[in-house]
């Protein structure tokens, strides 16, 4: 297949996008896919059938001709049936097996490239090998980093410059948090590659100094593509009832509580959060999910009598909620979050202050970054890594009804406005860079 030319005479770049098999990676890849499609690119988004099934309904009809889902089949392993070809619900001990199975799918990935003949591959740093497979077919490849420049820089110091002092103390981690970050997992992934250019899911509005530092540190061109924000749409009948309930609450009176698609609270943390919500007396929507195979009845999983005592003040869900729609609602005044990058960026984009409760990996760094930005407060764990209901309750009251909340909301809304004002500009620059990159590799005329 040859690169197509549009009726306006401009090049239609054919791009294959290849995220890691986690929703937290697929979602930002899909976000960038839509932005590129809006600029005339033809996108192939490649993942396993189980992952593609989960995102199919998140692709609006207007992208039916420009964003195509491509199935990648992993080898069949006895301990890894097809429903485990995703990190969603994957038992932790099988994570290395999933990485290995994806590596073993190289021949299948190579065949996909041979058949589609894309002009460019955009791959996830979690599978650095994809660049080598693309290069074997003379296809340029560039990586898309699904977290921010502050975390990238911090990781680089941990892995490549362990003796050096990180120059931004505001986002420093405690020793135990550094261990949880699993920095060694990234040793060969950070700056490996021929292209020496990387796309990053961030914006100069939020991370200008970190993007500049990152560029200087690795001597690569770091190109921001804006924050990974989903469209606030929902078609689920259950969501309609939830959004109606939210609409009965006063402006900024309700807190949204969610810890992402892959992180689960310990019983102790769940108990402290429940009592914190109860003591705070604020309205809330709490997504209290459990790992596959460990699902529990909500009444049994929460403190005795909790659901009766909170009455109509709160909603507790044991399934996914329409996060962008909740954050975009005028009744939502705060977000208790684990501070995964996607959640942090959505909250900032929708102008909602964050009560940070990070768990591990990049989350503590993300939490410190948004506290430094002035859009969040963090619930600090004690020396035994525990959180306490009294602090949760006081912080919640302060953010929803106190002066702290007014200050945070003013700041986050300003940043949100600035983010939106340069969003198109940053993505235009990224798209132009990709076109130029392909021209330099003689992949498009």
Could you explain how this protein is built, in words?
- This protein starts with a strand and ends in a 5-residue tail after the last helix.
- It is globular.
- The longest helix is centred in the C-terminal third of the chain and has 38 residues, at 403-440.
- The chain has helices at residues 23-38, 49-55, 95-104, 106-116, 129-136, 149-160, 175-180, 204-218, 237-247, 267-280, 298-301, 306-310, 323-327, 341-349, 363-373, 389-401, 403-440, and strands spanning 4-5, 11-12, 14-18, 42-47, 67-71, 120-124, 141-145, 197-200, 221-224, 254-258, 283-287, 314-317, 332-337, 354-356, 376-378.
- It has 17 helices and 15 strands.
- 44% of the residues are buried.
Helical residues, percent = 40-55%
Can you list the strand order of the major beta sheet? Answer: 5-4-3-6-7-8-9
User: Which percent range describes the beta-strand content?
Assistant: 5-15%
**How many runs of DSSP E, i.e. beta strands?**
15
How confident is the prediction overall: mean pLDDT? 89
Radius of gyration: 22 Å
Q: What form results from the Cα inertia axes? A: globular
| Count of DSSP H/I helices | 17
Tell me the major beta sheet. 7 strands, parallel
State the end-to-end CA separation.
Answer: 14 Å
- Provide the low-confidence segments as ranges: 1-10
Instruction: Report the structural category.
Output: alpha/beta
